[in-house]
């Protein structure tokens, strides 16, 4: 999907803005069905912006986790970062960039979360183990928490004033935009931790372990056990611990949703509720993430939307 040019300026006629957004919509619908379902609840303008961000994030991820990942080097990521800076300067290079340039300009996006995500891909080039959860949390922030930062600027933050005060007192803003941003990062981390738990078997087949080694040791579970797909009491206890941690991050993220602008609350609640159900399925599968992929049926997803709507109120 990704062709890195030698120069940051386009050498071909690029897609129109309308066609670029449509390309982003199609990619999101094809590769992120649960996520795409949540975007359908947004306003047309916001959903387009989120599609543009998703496609950029996907292309970035494919550099180290896609079909051509074996050919990706640090220099590849350098070129990709140069292309990013071209986009933020208003100069699209590829067709999806046209939509991203428009989104950046429309919502005043900050480039730093995008740079941080590329830094996360650099970690994948040199690391396939994480000794502590603090190490893993940094990785989760870079590859997923950054998405929360990018999206929060599109969602917008509502300003609530305290009505239970003397009428002559100046209004007090109850919610803190910084706190909202922190909660957006928490949601990204929760999602990535869920991905990691769902994909343990797939990652192991690639020789990668995205689980804190110190946690594995605490439950007397070895790397050899993991590569052999051993599901026993040690593994189940370990997975229960990891799922509790992921749910804690989901719970921390919940308090920030109410501070978002009204038209963003239902889709974000929907995304949280739908994604958290993956953890439920892992439990239903008796923590076997080696031979069974945790999959939430479409009917169950649709049945969750009314609950998300009630929470958004």
Describe the structure.
- Helix content is 68%, strand content 0%.
- It has helices at residues 17-31, 33-39, 44-65, 74-88, 95-107, 112-126, 133-155, 177-198, 200-205, 213-218, 223-227, 233-257, 262-284, 298-312.
- The longest helix is centred in the C-terminal third of the chain and has 25 residues, at 233-257.
List the helices and strands and how they pair.
Elements: H1 17-31, H2 33-39, H3 44-65, H4 74-88, H5 95-107, H6 112-126, H7 133-155, H8 177-198, H9 200-205, H10 213-218, H11 223-227, H12 233-257, H13 262-284, H14 298-312
The 3D shape can be described as globular
Rounded to an integer, what's the Rg over CA atoms? 20 Å
User: Count of helices?
Assistant: 14
Structure class: mainly alpha
Largest sheet: none
Total number of β-strand segments? Answer: 0
Properties at a glance:
0% strand, 313 residues, globular, mainly alpha
Structure described in brief:
The protein is an all-alpha fold. Helix content is 68%, strand content 0%. Helix 1 crosses helix 3 (44-65), helix 3 (44-65) packs antiparallel against helix 7 and helix 8 packs antiparallel against helix 12.
